[in-house]
Every structure is written in structure tokens, then in C-alpha cells.
């Protein structure tokens, strides 16, 4: 759980199991506003199911990054959570990859 600099221009966010009790996504948005030049990987490996607030913050973060020419990648998303993205038709909005190493490769390929 937590936020860490994965490299000079990639922030890795390990979301906690109980998302509603933490504000990692809000803190990451503040970091992106301050830094400006970074991509973000959100690791859902500890998350069972995400709710509306999480989806709203993810959309806000995605737009903030896009406005700066950067990417948001989601990894290790549980099937139940991925199903919610699909039902909400957000599965085509976000980039999903298997794990954090696939996320790094994805960001390198996307440039």
C-alpha cells in the first residue's frame, strides 16, 4: 500500500484493500499537479471491489494526465472490479494490464 516513485517519470500507487478509508488517488492527483511530467500506474492487487468514488477519481486523474500528455495504467484488477468497469463502459477508457511489470512495458511501448 502507498505511493512511490517507480522511476524518474513513473509514480506507482498500491491501492489499499479498503479504498474508502484512504486518499491515495487524491494525493496522486496533487503530486501530478506539482510534478507535471509523469505517468501513473495504479496497482489494484490488494483491492477486491472499487466503488463510485474510486471511478470518479480515476477519471479525474486520467484527464489530468492526458492534459499533460501522460498516461494512466491500471494493473492487477480483480475480475469483480473489472466487471464493474465493463458494466460502466469504462473498460475501453482505461489501459488495463496484467501486473506492474506489464504496466512498465506498456508505458515504454506507448512512449
Explain the overall architecture.
The chain is an alpha/beta fold and 111 residues long. A five-stranded mixed β-sheet has the order 1-2-3-4-5, sandwiched between helices. Helix content is 43%, strand content 21%. Strand 2, helix 1 (24-35) and strand 3 (39-43) form a beta-alpha-beta unit. The protein is built from four helices and five strands.
The tally of structural domains comes to 1
CATH topology group = Transcription Regulator spoIIAA
Distance between the termini: 27 Å
Structural class: alpha/beta
Morphology: globular
Strand order, sheet with most strands: 1-2-3-4-5
Going by CATH, the homologous superfamily would be STAS domain
Total helices: the number is 4
CATH architecture verdict? 2-Layer Sandwich
Return the CATH class: Alpha Beta
Mean pLDDT across every amino acid position: 90
- Oligomeric state: single chain
Would you count the extended β strands for me?
A: 5
SS strand fraction = 15-25%
Architecture blueprint of SSEs:
Elements: E1 2-7, E2 10-14, H1 24-35, E3 39-43, H2 52-67, E4 72-75, H3 79-87, E5 95-97, H4 100-110
